[in-house]
From TrEMBL:
It comes from the Bacteria. This is Bifunctional diguanylate cyclase/phosphodiesterase. The lineage of its organism: Bacteria, Pseudomonadati, Campylobacterota, Epsilonproteobacteria, Campylobacterales. The chain holds residues 342 to 621 of 621 of the full protein. It comes from Sulfurimonas crateris. Residues 23-278 form the EAL domain.
Length: 280
């Protein structure tokens, strides 16, 4: 038994050191990845209940020369830990804005363009200035009023007043806010009422369980009611099946997003998707 304990301790240490090494690799390579244009953006369509494409969510991808494909669920948290999210987030905003401007020139008209923003980014001292400058450089007034920043709930209650102040400054530029992964975090109803958000995004875990769990079904109905009562737009993500789609339409969810309609697409494939949707 003694030697068995030692073996598993060694195994554990190996696993841990592999994980630490990978984290260090990712940390080390992120800066280079931005310069080397290994980070690209994908655009996932959002549709209204009549099936029309009304918007998209920008999702980052990293195909590393050294490490291969690294999912955002892995490199975004690391970039948040290390502070690299500031540089990365700026790059993502800039590239996304370039795409939106190009689409405007091409006549690809959407109602909204959603971009994920980390709390760490919002709290950074230059964030408001950076966003204002990028807006001025790339976006028409019309486009500016179509930008939505998706942020996740935060548990740090004492920071709420600072968040509100920052959000209000950005709202003056026309930017709107969506509460991402809603239902999974800590936010209370009073928190929801305090912060100036415009949209709720139901977390995909609730959508996945719609068909086989009464709790999830009730949860989704409850969230839809909260959104309605607070006058917030509501988006469901992770819609994969016809059944889920029909349920959400019946319950008057505004906007649907998920593999049932489309995966996240490259810029040019999104353009094709938009064209065929417009002609259908
Ligand atoms: P998220 O913001 O909740 O994004 C939704 C995730 O669900 C995306 O994963 C998307 O590809 C995936 N998804 C969409 N529809 C479906 C579906 O029908 N079924 C399933 N199973 N999944 C679906 P992705 O692209 O891997 O991104 C993961 C997370 O990484 C995002 O979660 C977000 O938190 C973060 N992330 C991605 N891009 C960015 C970014 O540019 N900035 C920041 N700060 N975070 C980002
Ligand atoms: Ca999101
Ligand atoms: Ca989400
Ligand atoms: Ca998420």
């Amino acid at each position: 038994a003694k030697s068995k304990g030692r073996d598993s301790a060694i195994l554990f240490n190996d696993e841990l050191s592999i994980r630490i090494e990978r984290k260090l690799d990712i940390e080390r390579l992120l800066h280079f990845a931005i310069e080397n244009q290994e980070i690209t953006l994908m655009y996932q369509p959002q549709l209204n209940t009549r099936g029309k494409v009304t918007g998209c969510e920008v999702l980052a991808r990293w195909n590393s020369e050294q490490l291969g494909f690294i999912p955002p669920d892995e490199f975004i948290p690391i970039s948040e830990d290390t502070g690299m999210i500031i540089e990365l987030g700026y790059y993502i905003l800039q590239e996304a804005f370039k795409t939106f401007r190009n689409w405007e020139e091409k006549g690809i008209e959407l109602e909204q363009f959603s971009i994920n923003i980390s709390m760490r980014q919002i709290f950074h001292t230059t964030f408001i200035d950076d966003v204002q400058r990028l807006c001025q450089e790339y976006l028409s007034d019309t486009l500016r009023s179509k930008i939505v920043f998706e942020m996740t709930e935060t548990s740090v209650a004492e920071d709420v007043s600072i968040i509100i102040e920052k959000m209000n400054k950005l709202k003056k530029c026309g930017i709107r806010f969506s509460m991402d992964d809603f239902g999974t975090g800590y936010s209370s109803l009073s928190y929801l009422r305090q912060i100036p958000i415009d949209e709720l995004k139901i977390d995909k875990s609730f959508i996945f369980e719609l068909n086989d769990s009464n709790e999830s079904t009730n949860m989704v109905k409850t969230i839809l009611n909260i959104a309605k009562n607070l006058n917030l737009k509501i988006v469901a993500e992770g819609v994969e099946t016809q059944q889920q789609k029909e349920f959400l339409i019946k319950e008057e969810c505004d906007i649907l997003q998920g593999y049932h309609f489309s995966m996240p697409l490259t810029k040019s494939i999104f353009e094709e998707y938009f064209d065929s949707n417009a002609n259908s």
